Amino acid sequence: MNQLGEVATPLTLPSGLVLSNRLVKAAMAEQLAKNGQASSDLVRVYERWGQGGWGAIMTGNVMVDEKYMGSPQDTAIQNKSSAEIEKWHKIASGIKAQGALALMQINHPGRQSPAGAGSRGFLEKNVAPSAVPINFGESIVVKTIVKLLFGTPAEMSIIQVQTVINQFVDAAKFAQQTGFDGVTIHAAHGYLLSDFLSPKSNTRTDDYGGTPEKRARIIVEIIRAIREVVGATFSVSVKMNSSDQQHDAGSDAVLRQVDVLVAEGVDFLEISGGSYENPRMIGGDEAPAKSERTQKREAFFLDFALAVRERHPTLQLMLTGGFRTRAGMNSALISKGCDMIGVGRPAATVPDFPCSVVGIEAQKEVSDAEAGMQLEKIKEPWFLKHLPFPQLQRALAGGAETMYYGQKIRDMVKA
Ligand SMILES: Cc1cc2nc3c(=O)[nH]c(=O)nc-3n(C[C@H](O)[C@H](O)[C@H](O)COP(=O)(O)O)c2cc1C
């Protein structure tokens, strides 16, 4: 192995697909769509990432139902004209131009779809496993804001559960038809499927709730139904949270859910954390202040990944959140905490991060000391400091950080 270390080594997934190195551009919503339709700017952004030396590139979350979006500028897979299908073909081929795998992240935002995002009627409620609203704190003011922005979701009927399963299958078919190598099912960050996993947001007593395994059942059914139509060589993976979102359930319950998903033969499992209520995917394990240990190890969710590894020695694991240096990445790979390194904000800042920062395929050697980047501290809007609602404050700070890096993605179009 050369001085680049493990991060530069290829990886073969159970589907047979090969990553030329371990670096994966993580899913980041680009907000470059209108009414769910991709723009030519979106095509351009992926052309740029496609030139960056990544082992694999994940799209930002693509909505499976245009009625419910994470933001009004999200992409959705419905109502595709031939021009639109052509754009997605171009996105896939832009990603694959230098050999990166093209993975589409597919998502339903559930109760985290704000008013005005999606084509649902003004009075139509969001859908969720149970009628549990997002909780940003107990104050009346905060509860009123949540009510106006997200409302109290409606508990999904069994028919609605089946509809959502079918929508995920349609999204996977669309990804395959447009030249993607696989899909990754978003079951993290407080969106619909992660809310099914958590007993805080899933209080159902039917087949889709009540035990950790039953709470994972909708994802199991989605994986099975997708597999039936896409065949064995198409990658089907899942992004889920570490035990952070489910403190009530305990990490044993979350690990049992991992067992259930692994039994379905996922190509790999991506581990992240956080939700709108507590955006740890952005801030790390111990928000708001990170412990020295977390800072040193970079990876926010490494402990949980190691616990998963203990139960599933051969599972391909992707870990996302906090990676900034080649040394940190190699250390996580060597510890067996993961096989693939998910990179978010640095990829929005430096699209060719694998080449220009990590030193993959670089003309000259890049030393360990040079191979990394620190992200600038994002200035929070002034009023946040004065907000007397700590939970809402944390959520808005996470939102400001996401907006800042979202803009960096959109700035990629200009270069
Ligand atoms: C602008 C932006 C958009 C994001 N959109 C998504 C998304 O669509 N799907 C997802 O799973 N995670 C999303 N994330 C979270 C990232 O995938 C990742 O988990 C997070 O940024 C932590 O990784 P990092 O420390 O390398 O940035 C987003 C993050 C940012 C900054």
Automatic annotation (TrEMBL):
Gene Ontology molecular functions: FMN binding; oxidoreductase activity
Keywords: Flavoprotein, FMN, Oxidoreductase
UniProt cross-references to InterPro entries, sorted A to Z: Aldolase_TIM, NADH_flavin_oxidoreductase, OxRdtase_FMN_N
Pfam families reported in the protein's UniProt record: Oxidored_FMN
Stretches assigned to the NADH:flavin oxidoreductase/NADH oxidase N-terminal domain: 9-355
Similarity-based family: Belongs to the NADH:flavin oxidoreductase/NADH oxidase family.
The name this protein goes by in its record: FMN-linked oxidoreductase
Species for this entry: Aureobasidium namibiae CBS 147.97
